[in-house]
Design goal:
5-stranded mixed beta sheet; single chain; globular; 38 strands; alpha+beta
């Protein structure tokens, strides 16, 4: 009876709908911590004891079973971290990349990791030696989780795996659906909770893998969930947070949509405050990150009366005594930031929700700080319910970088104020301890009175009591002190940072696709002098093929009939209404709009047309006829207004975002003549197209007047596009009976084909994966165009140029003239871009400060695999992936190519 009573009391106190009981207990707990004596009735003593016991944070343990150490994602454990620190071992995996948001998971004396190449590994925690490997059917994008002797991991082909922690044997597997998962599994209450890229939240029984419930949330889920009995909290990519009952999946509430582009990489953070449970959510910015950072900086400077007209004036301010501020200025700034964010919603990326209702009580005064346009650094929740946050402020002494006005502080979700922490090292933090710049990725874990600062290349600690900052390991502009791995080269270390795993004697840190084991305190003191000098134990590689283990059973691929059904649905959506161009702002690459001209529409639907049922073909013909009249693809009218039409994005786009025009170079309308040719041939509209021959000829003449030519030494972003359109123009000229134009085009085709082949040969010879001595060497290599994988458009913006806008005709030219080059080139490409097919996830080789690749990246590589590599059907289908957005024309193309290849194989 007593056990049931206590259990019921615990459950009721934890539920969002019983905040009153919790508030009373919190108040009494706070008094108890301060040494205030309380007179409490007997029954109340029991409930206070239970609640106080529950609220006491976990102490440092031997395990770190999940992201941030616990399913509330607080990032806080009780205990003490103390010097000295000693790196005991470092490991990497040959030709395997680790995600930048991943975090080491520790259990049973083992460290569990997963790679983008689809392997789950267990290493000995004390030595780093590999114990077992389990090979999934595809990429694993985030950390596994551990509980009760089982390791849970999810891949992107649609399977959830339960592995025996002792030997890596498969205990069970469960289907997750198309697109699989990009998040870390949550294990709580005998269940596994995970969101899918297809937009469903799943509850799975831990014991046997039975799927207990599925709940569609309406948009992909790229955020790892958090949990507090009996509720699961997660944010879908329409940027609505959801509270679901863990037992049944029943939705308790869904929030209003937040601002941002994604909630990827991180998780909700649960804070038990004196006024109830709060759910803290972070997103990434809508504007180009430099614009966003600059706008926020100007506001902070103006509010504080600081001159920010030059970096020198701002640097002088940050080093002055006035920059510390005082309690009054800190409070006034918090209130001013809240007003600024309420008036400028596109600047918001931090949201504090009431866990009972899912509503915001106020606008949190936390401006965006992160790296590569990524989701902002998640807060750490301290025992009193306050949050340790990385935020932007005109006050403090943490600035140390090119995007200053950054601070560490304590956010009180109840008062809605932020108070800065101050270190004792003067106006700036010591070198290599903290990078006080707003555009770099960081994460934090707190152990007692120590904050562990997880930066890109360094791991440091900050003692709250003494104000002391100290480097633990690493060095600026390195990968934990090491050079880049050639297959995981990475300029700014990725758009996110995982946390550091803390155990009773060691820290486990992941950076630059390496895992570090660092002893601290007595464990570090016990390391012998000889061991410290033995550098051979430091950086050692693991060959996956040499690690014992097993592989997952093959994934069942969708049938051709299922794919035809999906294609019909996708085309129906595309022609159902007028759609606005798709907005994507990847980071410093800037914003781009996709599906923004009629050529895109015609090319995509023309590929699908012969595969569609007759009634849908007629509707597609009618739709394209309207495009031909209203937006002729061979004219400047081909391009659409970015404001007109239904939005393709799942997230909100305020007017001030759409008002900012991108600066990227558009192709000449002549580049759409390949789409015109497909429209004529595949949709049976040859007569309509030939009627417009005078306009097509005029478009060609106008293009020739631009003087464009393909330089075999430099190449060009539109080389494939213009060559394909030139071939189409020649074909159209032949049908139109214009022999002069046909002959002229044929001569140019010969010239451009030779130049393209020469460019391919030269590029393939340079397609190496060097190890860079430093960032300067990497910048020089990239800026001088030595990167043979990408074509630089502008700073931080590049495309996989040899694959861009590929067509069957152009592919055949390459296969005929450069037979050896394209095969070796493709191998290099896949080695450095193993997740190229996955839309909306972490970018590939980290070219530039961006959080993701643009959607045309995957399409370009898919066309190369189809036409250059002549991949069979069973190799193409796994690379289809999910749509990027509503009315995704690229998804239509990929499905059409698969089905066309399938029809050919069936006929053969």
């Amino acid at each position: 009876m007593r056990v049931n009573f206590i259990q019921g009391l615990l459950e009721s106190s934890r539920a969002p709908s019983h905040t009153h009981t919790m508030n009373n207990a919190l108040s009494k707990y706070s008094m108890w911590r301060k040494g205030i004596k309380l007179k409490v009735p007997g029954p109340m003593r029991i409930s206070i004891f239970i609640l106080v016991t529950w609220m006491i944070p976990p102490s440092i343990a031997a395990d770190w079973p999940t992201l941030r150490g616990n399913v509330e994602r607080t990032g806080y454990v009780d205990g003490k971290i103390q010097p000295p620190f000693q790196v005991e071992w470092v490991r990497f995996f040959y030709d395997e990349r680790l995600g930048t948001a991943m975090e080491p998971i520790v259990g049973e004396g083992k460290v569990f990791l997963a790679t983008h190449q689809g392997n789950v590994y267990a290493l000995r925690a004390d030595t780093g030696e590999p114990l077992w490997r389990f090979h999934t059917n595809s990429t694993v994008l985030h950390s596994p989780s551990y509980a009760e002797g089982v390791v849970i991991a999810a891949d992107t082909h649609g399977t959830l795996y339960a592995l025996d922690a002792t030997n890596g044997k498969l205990r069970w597997s469960a289907p997750t659906g198309p697109g699989g998962c990009s998040v870390s599994p949550l294990i709580a209450g005998g269940r596994v909770f995970i969101g899918t890229r297809g937009g469903e939240m799943l509850g799975v029984r831990l014991e046997d893998g039975k799927v207990l419930w599925r709940k569609p949330l309406g948009a992909p889920i790229r955020q790892t969930a958090a949990y507090l009995e009996p509720y699961v909290y997660v944010t879908s990519e329409d940027l609505r947070a959801h509270c679901l009952r863990g037992e049944s999946g029943e939705i308790q509430w869904s929030s209003k949509p937040f601002y941002g582009q994604t909630a990827r990489d991180y998780y909700p953070v649960l804070a038990q405050t004196r006024e109830g449970l709060r759910v803290l959510i972070r997103t990434n910015p809508l504007l180009t990150m430099s614009d966003h950072i600059g706008r926020d900086r100007r506001f902070l400077a103006q509010n504080a009366g600081v001159d920010d007209s030059t970096w020198q004036s701002l640097d002088a301010w940050s080093k002055s005594p006035a920059a510390i501020g005082d309690a009054t200025k800190w409070r006034e700034e918090s209130r001013a930031v809240s007003r600024y964010l309420a008036q400028t919603p596109s600047a918001r990326t931090f949201f504090a929700l009431d866990a009972e209702t899912g509503q915001e009580n106020q606008t949190a005064p936390v401006l965006w700080c992160a790296g590569c346009e990524g989701t902002g650094t998640p807060p750490v929740i301290q025992p009193d319910g306050n949050a340790m946050v990385l935020y932007r402020s005109a006050y403090g002494n943490w600035n140390h970088g090119v995007a200053p006005l950054v601070a560490l502080g304590r956010y009180d979700p109840v008062s809605n104020l932020v108070t800065p922490f101050l270190h004792r090292h003067g106006s700036q933090s010591p070198w290599n301890t903290f990078w006080g710049t707003a555009d770099e990725s960081q994460n934090y874990v707190q152990v007692g009175q120590t904050i562990l600062i997880v930066h890109q290349g360094t791991l440091s600690w900050f003692d709250l009591e003494s104000g002391s900052l100290r480097l633990i390991a690493g060095n600026r502009d390195t990968f934990g002190g090491f050079l880049n791995l050639p297959w995981a080269r990475n300029e700014w270390h990725g758009p996110a940072r995982g946390g550091v795993a803390v155990t009773e004697s060691h820290l486990y840190w992941l950076t630059g696709s390496r895992i570090f084991c660092i002893a601290y305190g007595p464990a570090a003191e016990s390391v012998t002098k000889q061991e410290k000098q033995d550098q051979s134990i430091q950086d050692r590689g693991i060959h996956g093929d040499c690690v014992p283990g097993e592989s997952a059973p093959p994934t069942v691929l969708p049938s051709l009939e299922q794919l035809r059904s999906r294609l019909v649905d996708a085309v129906e959506e595309c022609i159902s209404q007028r759609w606005a161009p798709l907005y994507v702002n990847a980071g410093l690459a800037g914003a781009e709009y996709f599906f923004d001209d009629s050529g895109d529409v015609m090319e995509s639907l023309a590929w699908a047309f012969p595969i569609l049922p007759g009634d849908l073909q007629q509707r597609v013909k009618s739709y394209l006829a309207g495009e031909w009249e209203q937006h002729p693809p061979y004219s400047e009218n081909a391009w659409y207004s970015v404001e007109a039409g239904a939005r393709r994005e799942a997230f909100l786009l305020p007017p001030d975002v759409l008002e900012r025009r991108p600066t990227y170079r558009k192709p000449h309308p002549f580049g759409n003549l390949y789409a015109v040719w497909l429209y004529a041939e595949r949709c049976g509209e040859g007569q309509k197209v030939l009627t417009a021959w005078p306009s097509l000829l005029a478009c060609y003449r106008d293009f020739r007047q631009t003087g464009w030519t393909l330089d075999p030494a430099k190449g060009d972003l539109f080389a494939n596009r213009y060559l394909a359109s030139l071939i189409a123009f020649r074909n159209l000229a032949e049908k139109a009976g214009d022999s002069a134009a046909q002959k002229e085009a044929q001569a140019l085709i010969q010239e451009w084909s030779e130049n393209l082949s020469a460019w391919w040969k030269a590029t393939a010879q340079r397609a190496e994966l060097p190890v860079f001595k430093n960032v300067l060497e990497f910048d020089t290599y990239r800026n001088q165009g030595e990167d043979a994988i990408f074509f630089k458009i502008q700073g931080h913006n590049a495309k996989p140029f040899l694959f861009q806008d590929l067509t069957p005709d152009v592919a055949e030219i390459v296969r005929k003239n450069v037979s050896a080059a394209f095969t070796s080139y493709w191998k290099t490409f896949e080695r450095v871009c193993p997740t190229w097919a996955l839309l909306g996830e972490e970018r590939q080789v980290h070219y530039g400060e961006n959080f993701t690749d643009f959607p045309d990246f995957a399409l370009a590589a898919f066309k190369a695999k189809t036409w250059l590599m002549k991949a069979p059907l069973d190799e193409l289908v796994p690379y289809l992936d999910i749509p990027w957005c509503r009315a995704d024309l690229n998804y239509v193309v990929k499905m059409s190519l698969i089905l066309e290849r399938g029809s050919g194989e069936e006929a053969g």
